């Protein structure tokens, strides 16, 4: 593929510089663009690391000042007054007002839009960008209305890491059909993005109005999300949508010695090791730690003399012991090579989820040669090629022949199916080895970061003329 890199300049916008899979992929993708010769200006709503070169979408200085003044005043007020019933409500309202229109909208259940810096991002770049690449825009940091202004200047590409773009509130709709019917009776205000009141109907109407005067190029990592976009309020804004699966840096995530990894991590060589990766796994509303733990304890009780180690990467908790088995929690690991060591030390990767789009952790596991057990939700069945032999006893999404299968898919929230899948891999080393071999081949073909970044670049060059002006 011939790539035009002359003066190609990208403005990238994302919620934060470090975090979960969406942030990691955005960073890796931007690094690929730089290595190709592109210039990338990265803006985020929240900067978590001083080491990154991301720049903040600055909050309103006026409302930051009023917040600071109010907080200072409140510190001088005696706590006995602050806790009086009538005064408590009064100070609650004053505190909300001091934080500006976004805080007031939040109390009403409405999406905040007062982020003036959003409109200024093009002018803050080192030079006018040739295109804008959007990632997650939720997180209370960006004015979605600014996209209408941006689209008149440069082409906009939007990578949909979840469903928020076409819902009235949430990042994942789960079984709710409100996103197709206008929202308005939200069944779960507590899930991310949470609000104290139901303003989902209003929020979806605002998005609908914005999208009707906007043109976007949409990138979905999964066919699952892409199919839903066509039924959503986002559809009128879509010039074109393409499915580009995520890519993994396979110079880091590749198969290696299991024994060496276990020696490094001080894991017994005779353990059967199962790994699950999720940020705040136990409280993550999209993952399903409860089913994972239930399956782990069932398996441990069924095989009391077998050493089974369940590793949960991304959470902090005391270890849980059952017989000779245990669940260990490992938190705070951001080093990719260390994550890779935990995967190489494992026999199988188990991804338990209520809903998910295209989890990066599954691709990392497959790239390390691990067979995967995963809940058949969202785009996961596009990642994991489930072995057809288990279609009747596990999920019906298991449709791949033994020559191509890379794992086993299970129905969501079924600890019994997770136990059966784990037992299968524990007792059948030949199957584990075959699926591991297939995973390595398939991940090199479909999930290589450099190859996937070339799909983006090819599309960018179709839309952006050689001199950098929009067609």
Amino-to-carboxy terminus distance: 21 Å
Oligomer: single chain
Give the total of beta strands.
Answer: 14
Mean pLDDT: 92
- Shape call: globular
In short:
This protein has 471 residues and is α/β, with parallel strands linked by helices.
Essential attributes:
single chain, Rossmann fold, 3 domains, 7-stranded mixed sheet, disordered C terminus
Write structural notes for this entry.
The chain has helices spanning 21-36, 61-76, 79-82, 85-98, 101-107, 121-124, 146-151, 178-181, 200-212, 223-229, 258-265, 289-302, 336-344, 360-367, 380-383, 415-427, 429-446, 449-463; strands at residues 9-16, 39-46, 55-56, 131-134, 156-159, 216-220, 238-243, 272-277, 308-313, 320-322, 325-330, 348-351, 372-375, 407-410. By secondary structure, the chain is an alpha/beta fold. The chain has three domains: 9-60 and 110-247 and 450-463, 3-Layer(aba) Sandwich (Rossmann fold); 61-99, no CATH class; 258-447, 3-Layer(aba) Sandwich (Rossmann fold). A seven-stranded parallel β-sheet has the order 3-2-1-4-5-6-7. Strands 10-11-9-8-12-13-14 form a seven-stranded mixed β-sheet, sandwiched between helices. Strand 1, helix 1 and strand 2 form a beta-alpha-beta unit.
Describe the secondary structure blueprint for this structure.
Elements: E1 9-16, H1 21-36, E2 39-46, E3 55-56, H2 61-76, H3 79-82, H4 85-98, H5 101-107, H6 121-124, E4 131-134, H7 146-151, E5 156-159, H8 178-181, H9 200-212, E6 216-220, H10 223-229, E7 238-243, H11 258-265, E8 272-277, H12 289-302, E9 308-313, E10 320-322, E11 325-330, H13 336-344, E12 348-351, H14 360-367, E13 372-375, H15 380-383, E14 407-410, H16 415-427, H17 429-446, H18 449-463
Parallel strand pairs: 1-2, 1-4, 2-3, 4-5, 5-6, 6-7, 8-9, 8-12, 9-11, 12-13, 13-14
Antiparallel strand pairs: 10-11
């Amino acid at each position: 593929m011939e790539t035009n890199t002359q003066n190609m300049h990208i403005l990238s916008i994302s919620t934060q510089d470090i975090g979960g899979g969406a942030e990691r992929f955005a960073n890796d993708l931007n690094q690929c663009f730089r290595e190709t010769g592109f210039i990338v200006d990265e803006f985020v709503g929240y900067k978590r690391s001083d080491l990154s070169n991301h720049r903040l979408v600055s909050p309103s200085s006026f409302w930051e000042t009023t917040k600071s003044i109010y907080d200072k005043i409140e510190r001088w007020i005696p706590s006995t007054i602050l806790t009086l019933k009538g005064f408590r409500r009064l100070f609650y309202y004053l505190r909300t007002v001091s934080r500006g229109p976004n805080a007031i909208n939040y109390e009403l259940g409405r999406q905040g839009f007062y982020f003036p810096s959003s409109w200024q991002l093009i002018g803050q770049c080192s030079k006018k960008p040739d295109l804008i690449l959007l990632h997650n825009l939720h997180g209370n940091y960006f004015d979605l209305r600014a996209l209408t202004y941006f689209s008149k200047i440069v082409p906009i590409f939007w990578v949909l890491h979840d469903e928020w773009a076409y819902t009235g509130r949430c990042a994942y709709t789960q079984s709710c059909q409100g996103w197709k019917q206008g929202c308005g009776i939200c069944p779960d205000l507590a899930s991310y993005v949470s609000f104290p009141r139901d303003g989902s109907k209003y929020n979806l109407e605002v998005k609908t109005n914005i999208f009707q005067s906007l043109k976007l190029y949409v990138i979905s990592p999964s066919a699952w999300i892409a199919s839903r976009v066509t039924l959503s309020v986002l559809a009128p804004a879509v010039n074109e949508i393409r499915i580009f699966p995520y890519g993994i840096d396979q110079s880091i995530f590749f198969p290696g010695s299991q024994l060496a990894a276990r020696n490094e991590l001080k894991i017994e060589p005779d353990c059967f090791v199962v790994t699950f990766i999720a940020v705040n796994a136990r409280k993550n509303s999209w993952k399903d730690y409860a089913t994972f733990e239930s399956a782990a304890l069932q398996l441990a009780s069924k095989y009391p003399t077998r050493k089974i180690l369940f590793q949960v990467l991304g959470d902090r908790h005391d270890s849980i012991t059952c017989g000779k088995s245990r669940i260990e929690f490992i938190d705070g690991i951001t080093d990719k090579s260390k994550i890779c060591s935990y995967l190489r030390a494992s026999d199988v990767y188990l991804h338990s989820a209520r809903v998910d789009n295209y989890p990066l952790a599954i691709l990392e596991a497959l790239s390390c040669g691990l067979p995967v057990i995963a809940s058949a939700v969202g785009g996961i069945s596009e990642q994991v090629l489930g072995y057809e032999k288990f279609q009747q006893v596990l999920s019906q999404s298991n449709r791949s022949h033994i020559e191509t299968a890379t794992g086993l898919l299970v129905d969501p929230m079924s600890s019994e199916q997770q136990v059966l899948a784990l037992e299968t891999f524990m007792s059948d080393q030949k199957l584990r080895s075959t699926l591991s071999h297939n995973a390595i081949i398939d991940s090199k073909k479909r999930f290589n970061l450099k190859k996937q970044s070339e799909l983006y670049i090819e599309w960018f060059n179709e839309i952006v003329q050689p001199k950098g002006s929009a067609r």
